[in-house]
Amino acid sequence: MDQRERLQVTGALRAGRARADAPSASSRLQGKLVHTCERQTGRLAPWTRIRPDSSAMALHIRDFREADRAALIALWEACALTRPWNDPDADVDRAVTSRDATILVGTVDDVVFASVMAGHDGHRGWIYYLAVSPDRKARGHGREMMAEAELWLKARGAPKVQLMVRQGNETAAAFYTALGYERQDVTVLGKWLTPSPEAE
Ligand SMILES: CC(C)(COP(=O)(O)OP(=O)(O)OC[C@H]1O[C@@H](n2cnc3c(N)ncnc32)[C@H](O)[C@@H]1OP(=O)(O)O)[C@@H](O)C(=O)NCCC(=O)NCCS
């Protein structure tokens, strides 16, 4: 069974995950018997045992820890997510000290390979800093990180999740479309409430 089929199977089981630092569903299911579902027809196939896949080790998704900071920011830089006007350290500080935001990291052998920041503004859920290490792309990790972030937001009562994609980031736009995200008929406006770093 490949990684994508496994994720389809585990999707429903993720809803039962109680703690953000528990192993991700795909990790927890390794060695267990599960029903698989054929992608095309939706028919249930016979029971299958999920085996650890040593070539594409399962991602362990957990809350950010202070010891992750340098690796996390290096990941954001490798994924071209940092901008001169956003201090990544300050972004981490704000997220980890807020009750309404979180940073989840995806690790293999406790090495950070993926991240996502999620926040609830009291009305909508928002996603920032979704990143998968360039050498681990196209293995379903981005989809896994988004599934965990969506669960986190849903658990806090967010009825809808939104995100912003920078102009020209066609890869991210195609990725989010594959996950069911739709272009919204809105214009994003912004205004600095502190002295604009762009003016410096
Ligand atoms: C965008 C990003 C997170 C995707 O991560 P990933 O682990 O490679 O994506 P996945 O393997 O989980 O792909 C999930 C789905 O998106 C699709 N997808 C991913 N990249 C795609 C692309 N360039 N074009 C079309 N579809 C794409 C995959 O085909 C897959 O669909 P499927 O499951 O139906 O086959 C990763 O490319 C990244 O870190 N980019 C740099 C940072 C960035 O731009 N972040 C978003 C900021 S808004």
From TrEMBL:
Residues 59-200 form the N-acetyltransferase domain. Keywords: Acyltransferase, Transferase. Coiled coil: none annotated. The keyword Transferase applies. Transmembrane segments: none annotated. GO terms for molecular function: acyltransferase activity, transferring groups other than amino-acyl groups. It holds the Pfam family Acetyltransf_1. NCBIfam families: PRK03624.1 (NF002959). PANTHER family: AMINOALKYLPHOSPHONATE N-ACETYLTRANSFERASE-RELATED-RELATED (PTHR43877). This is Acetyltransferase. It comes from Hyphomonas oceanitis SCH89.
